[in-house]
Amino acid sequence: MISLVNLQVGYQGNAVTPLLNGTFPAGSMTALIGANGCGKSTLLKTLAGLLPPVSGQLMLDRALNIAWLPQQSGIEKNFPVSVFDLVAMGCWRRCGWFGAVDRQMKQKVMTALEQVNMSGFAAAQPGTLSGGQLQRVLFARLLVQDASLLLLDEPFTGIDTATIQLLLALLQERHRAGATLIVVLHDMATVEGFFPQILRLGATQAEWTKRSPAVTALESTC
After folding, report:
1. What are the tens digits of pLDDT across the range 57-97?
2. Nearby residues of 61 by Cβ (< 8 Å), 6 or more positions away
């Protein structure tokens, strides 16, 4: 479980969120929503350990295996590695940054690429991929990590509907397997259809909503 007690997050000591109090229960699936600039990405970075809290308490076991998917960047896409190598970076906890990827890990990488329908691009350069293809590859890297906590920042922005459906199905699989998911989103149809918990950030307050929606079951057929 992740607990927030009078937590405020921001940059260089300047808070960009209201006081946050609440919990992300273990195994929960939460959509993080709100207007641009309200601190959604900043909160995610703080949960990931990339930024310190400005004030208050964040109670989170740092021994958790955390998988972090930021918004797409040119740095990711133009990095001079193959698609296979990019996905294999998800194995670093097992083999270290400079360790060899053994046969078992290679098979795990190829299985993850098959799950996102990108196995035929294993030798391609990330810079040659479309936005949707690159996002599939980055999701494959998440799958390889086998993380217990997944933090995703606007994972469906600028990609096609078929890819969104595929990636939502993969997130549901991780949720059913017991992973905790916190996802920054803008599309309310996706939020209301698939996320049992919502944290809405506002300028002066934060609102938690926990519900039992008729979450749509998706098949990974895209």
Report:
1. 999 887 778 999 988 755 566 778 899 989 988 876 665 55
2. none
Q: Tell me, what amino acid is at 169?
A: A
**pTM recorded for the entire structure:** 0.87
CA distance 12 to 10: 7
Which pLDDT tens digit goes with each residue over 143-185?
Answer: 998 899 999 999 998 888 988 999 999 999 999 999 999 999 9
**Cβ atoms of 201 and 186 closer than 8 Å:** no
How much is the mean pLDDT over the chain?
86
8 Å CB contact between 56 and 4: yes
Highest CATH level, class, for 1-64+182-212:
alpha beta
Q: Parallel, antiparallel, or unpaired: how do β-strands 66-69 and 149-153 relate?
A: parallel
Q: Based on the number of CB atoms within 10 Å of its own CB, is 176 exposed (0-12), middle (13-18) or buried (19 or more)?
A: exposed
Class of domain 65-147: alpha beta
Q: For residue 161, give every residue at least 6 positions away whose Cβ sits within 8 Å of its Cβ, in sequence order, or none.
A: none
Whether 216 contacts 171, CB under 8 Å: no
* Residue ranges of the chain that CATH labels 3.40.50.300: 1-64+182-212, 65-147
d(CA 175, CA 163): 18
Sign of CA dihedral 111, 24, 54, 186: positive
